[in-house]
Structures are given as C-alpha cells and as structure tokens.
Design a protein that fits this description.
By secondary structure, the protein is of the alpha+beta class. The chain has a domain at 82-166: Cytochrome Bc1 Complex, Chain D, domain 2 (Orthogonal Bundle). It has helices at 7-18, 67-73, 82-92, 103-107, 133-145, 155-166, 182-193, 203-207, 241-251, 262-274; strands at residues 20-23, 31-35, 38-42, 45-46, 58-59, 122-124, 129-131, 213-215, 218-219, 230-232, 237-239, 284-286. The strands form five sheets. It has a three-stranded antiparallel beta sheet with strand order 1-8-9. A three-stranded mixed beta sheet has the order 11-10-12. The radius of gyration is 19 Å and the shape is globular. The termini are far apart. 37% of the residues are buried. The structure holds heme C (2 copies). Residues 99, 101, 103, 105-107, 116, 136-137, 140-141, 144-145, 160, 164 line the site of one heme C. One heme C (HEC) is lined by residues 18, 61, 201, 203, 205-207, 215, 218, 220-221, 223-225, 227, 230, 244-245, 248-249, 251-252, 267, 271, 286.
Amino acid sequence: MKRIMTSAMIGGLVAASLGFAAQAEGTKDSLVINGEDGPVKIITHVKNPPAGSPLPELFSGWVFRSKETRALEADDFDNPGMIFVEQAWETWNTPDGKAGKSCADCHGEPSSMKGLRAVLPRWDDKQGKLMTLEDYINWSRVEHMGAKPWKYGGGQLTSMVALISLQSRGMPVNVKTDGPAKKMWELGKKIYYTRVGQLDMACSNCHEDNYGKYIRADHLSQGQINGFPAYRLKNAKLNSVHARFKGCMKNIRAKPYKVGSDEFRALELYVASRGNGLSVEAPSVRN
Ligand code: HEC
Ligand code: HEC
C-alpha cells in the first residue's frame, strides 16, 4: 500500500489508538529526601532550562507519579531501592579478581565518587570513547582488579551504579555535549526524534509532545534519566537507563538496540543533557 498519510495524520491516529487522555498537572510538592546523612533537597522542576533546551520547563519523573509512589522516595528507610545500594556497599568492600583487591582498597569510601554521576556519560580522551558509569566500573574491574566485567544492565552492575550515583544525590546534572562528545550527542538526538516500530513513534512523541497527559493508566513524564537507576514497583528491582530505553522501544513494537550498545550510550548522553539542571535523584522509585 502506498503511504499517502502525512506523519501528522499518523501521529494523530496513533494518539487516538493509544489514547492520550487529558492533561493533568504533576505535583507542585517539592522533594526533600531524608537520608542517612540528613535531608537532601532535590530539584525536580527547572523553570528556566539552559538555552537551546527543547523543553519549556524540566520535570523529574517523580512529579508525575502517584502520591504513594512519591512518598516512598522521600525517606531512605521506605525506598526499596536502598536494599540494592546496601548490597553494593558490601561488594565495594569485598576483594575480587586476580589482584585480590576491593573497590575500597583503592577508592576508600564510596563518597570519593561524589560528583561523578552528575557529569556522566562523558567523552574520555584516554579511552577514546563515550563512557557511562557502567563503563567506568567495568573498566576498573578489568584493568585494576583483574576481575571479569559485570553484565551491562545486570543486577550487580546496576546496584553499584546506584551506590555511586547516590553520592551525587541532589547535585544538578551537568553533562557536556560539545567537543568530542558532540558526535555521539547528535546520534542520540537523531535516535530520539526518529519514528520507529509498528506504532511508528519517536521518543519525542510521548515524552516531549505529550508529557503531562495520560497514556492508558500511566501519567506520562518527560522521560528524564536523573533518577536512574530506578526501583520499579512493576519488577521490584533496580532498572538501568538502558533497560528502560529498551522497555520503551518494545512498547512501541520496535526492535530495541542492545543494552550496552553505542546507540544507547549516545541516547543516554542526549537524554541526560535534556535534564541538565535537574538533581541526581538515584535511586528513584517509579511504577
Ligand atoms: C587496584 C586499584 C583499584 C581497584 C581495586 C578499583 N579501582 Fe576503580 N579506579 C582505579 C584507578 C587507578 C582509576 C583511574 C583514576 C583516574 O583515572 O582518575 C579508577 C577509576 C574508577 C572510576 C572512574 C572514576 C572517575 O572519576 O573517573 C570508577 C567509577 C571506578 N574506578 C570504580 C571502581 C569500582 C566500583 C571498583 C570495585 C568494583 C573499583 N573501581 C576498583 C583503581 C582501582
Ligand atoms: C508510546 C509512548 C512512549 C514512547 C514513544 C516512549 N516512551 Fe518512554 N515512557 C512511556 C511511559 C508510559 C513511561 C512511564 C511513565 C513515565 O515516566 O512517563 C515511560 C518512561 C520512560 C522513562 C522513565 C522516566 C522516569 O523518570 O522514570 C524514560 C527514561 C523513558 N521513558 C525514555 C524513553 C525513550 C528514550 C524513548 C525513545 C526510545 C521513549 N521513552 C519512548 C511511554 C513512551
């Protein structure tokens, strides 16, 4: 059959079949997390995003969740994601690999990693590639510990990402998109706006054009990643950024890129940059 519909018409049809329901405001409440070392203020709303932002305002996904789900994130004792962080802390102190060393032997306390999560992914000249936090951890395991890399998106790696991300909680995301990172950023942007799958949709069709609306029972967010890894009530575990991307691609019946692929690294950089200014919020709680 010849394609005679314009993309706007297709978009309209898809919206009708999926049923984007009326706009509903996200919460105006602010998030202060009662953590072990005292309260942490989280920036969940940026009124004036950096110049060139495709979004008029930035919102953390937290803003669109139900009151009950939001409450789980406001206290570390209630946040089920913290169990995985504690497991990672044990791993941090446990020797592994041929060198017989633990993370702690070389890095001291996890707090030595403060600030790192806020600037990742970033281009690394020494590595000659765009590095995610997962990449750094696995590189350090292989290079410094003589240990095997953990599975990208797997439980051990994602929990360690959560422990290290937690050290930056509250700090504004600030990834660099210029210089040598630019090419990957542009690839990520292209992927973000490209319609794919049987539903012929792009990330932007949901997370830019329709955030704030309901899609089935879900209150659509901007698809930000400042809260990752995210504990999802749906699968009762921590979910990596790439796993979430994969899930969204599957939902629109597209063939997802692989977890740990360069395409998802590029998309991660691009999506992170759309949230520059929101706080690192990991581990967040989502449905
Ligand atoms: C034998 C020492 C050693 C061990 C053990 C070790 N690392 Fe490293 N790690 C390093 C060195 C050296 C670097 C590079 C530091 C640099 O380039 O600034 C590094 C870099 C990193 C980085 C990037 C930091 C940054 O600021 O760019 C991360 C993340 C990391 N390691 C995590 C871990 C984790 C998690 C473990 C345990 C699973 C671990 N490392 C075990 C020595 C070690
Ligand atoms: C058909 C609509 C749709 C499309 C297209 C879509 N998503 Fe989503 N996405 C959702 C829904 C629904 C959720 C769960 C509610 C929410 O947070 O928006 C979600 C959640 C997310 C989240 C989690 C946000 C958080 O704070 O927990 C991220 C990140 C995300 N999407 C990224 C993407 C990316 C990247 C793409 C393109 C590859 C994409 N999505 C395509 C519907 C979509």
